[in-house]
Every structure is written in structure tokens, then in C-alpha cells.
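Researcher: Next sequence.
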Amino acid sequence: MARTRVNVSALHAALDAARTARNLSWRQLAGAVGVSPSTMTRLANGHRPDVDAFAALVRWLGAPAESFMIDAEGEAERQAPEEPELLVQLAPLLRARRDLGEDDVKYLEEVIGAAMRRFAADREARLG
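Model: Next structure:
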């Protein structure tokens, strides 16, 4: 049985990307998430967050918790579907753009989602 743990570096990188996209300091990010600034410092130093902080962080990111899980050998868990991961990564970038309104962002998310579903269907057809 594989022992699953939090991939702290992946979680920290995702938070940093979202923080940068939203032009937030680490302290502002902590406040927006509802965790202490020391939680962010611990993550930066490679320490796992407690379960409540982890839940708040992934909820704020809008990412499935499985996206930040690795097994004992360090391999990422394969349970999270590919499509939401891409959209989760792009959503903060799209929302940070000042030249896009909320309707624009929703439209782009729909287009990207449709493209990803098409790519997956094409891949399945080729693989049989």
C-alpha cells in the first residue's frame, strides 16, 4: 500500500503562481486564504501544512486536493483528471488580466475546456 503525502513544492508553486497573477504579497495571500502568514513560511521551507490549512489552500486555488498528492516514491497520484488541472492552472492567469471581463474569462474557460475534451476524445480514438 502506497503512503500518500502532500507534495509541498507543487502546492507552494501553485500558490506562488496564483499569488503573482493576482499581485498579492504572501501576507495578503494568507489573509485571503484564511491561514496564518507563518503557514506560508512553513510551506516555503518545505514543511507540510496541517489538514485544515491544506483544505483552505486547495479550496482557494480551486484545485482538487489530489493534484498535490504524491506517493511514497514521489510520483504524483494519477487520480485527478487532466482537464481540470489545466483549467485550474489557467484560471488565475485569466482572472488576473485587466483586459478581460468576467464574461470573457468564462467564455475562454469554456473554449479551453471544449478543446481539452476534443483532444482527449481524439487521443482515445487513436489508442483504441
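Model: The chain has one domain: 5-127. The chain has a mean pLDDT of 84.
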